[in-house]
Amino acid sequence: xxxxxxxxxxxxxxxxxxxxxxxxxxxxxxxxxxxxxxxxxxxxxxxxxxxxxxxxxxxxxxxxxxxxxxxxxxxxxxxxxxxxxxxxxxxxxxxxxxxxxxxxxxxxxxxxxxxxxxxxxxxxxxxxxxxxxxxxxxxxxxxxxxxxxxxxxxxxxxxxxxxxxxxxxxxxxxxxxxxxxxxxxxxxxxxxxxxxxxxxxxxxxxxxxxxxxxxxxxxxxxxxxxxxxxxxxxxxxxxxxxxxxxxxxxxxxxxxxxxxxxxxxxxxxxxxxxxxxxxxxxxxxxxxxxx
Length: 291
Ligand code: GLU
Description:
Number of helices: 11
Bound molecules: glutamic acid
Largest sheet: 6 strands, mixed
Shape: globular
């Protein structure tokens, strides 16, 4: 990883360096470093994390390769866990993981229980109004899981069916848009600003659940005809006798979410950008065989 310049909030680089050594040495080092690295600014909120000694991160616990918790050991693993640990390493603090769902992750961030969410959290324009997102570190697609016995194999097979989705996710909206694009349903009543999965009944309807294991159970029980979400999340539920339909749609760019306009947002984005450039993120994708 690249070496970078760290600047304490309110203190210029020259001032900071001249306090620790000669100005001549500082200028030489600054020039060399500026070519190699971006700047991490320690704002008050970042300093708070450093002083606390712990970075509190909301992660998934059942998304293999992203955020997965071994129920026997309590250990988390996956690329989102590695990203969290690297951010903590930069800060010089420990990591504390909290399992979140699509329904709970933003509440926990807003209440200050966690410092960031690294949990297959798709960047959308609507969400960007409420939270900051880093540059995307991964792009997934939405798809649909069905029981083979349903004989549903395509988007067309979902017409007039009930689909299980998670509350607070992009899934229902993505599926409706894909079905409109495929001209399977009319988009006449679709308004992306007011769309509500609970109220949508045109050509497909939705049941919303708080977590993914419950949707999987509902699929087995025939309570829903299909289970729709990002492919990475579905992987663990694709057991014997279940298949994906023949359609992937709605690219989902995952970003690290932080409190809007916080100093920590800029801090995290600097790191993610650097890790995208220097191959660190590609290394995780390879390690967890994500592509
Ligand atoms: N990635 C999608 C979203 O952010 C699916 C839900 C999830 O991440 O749990 O809405």
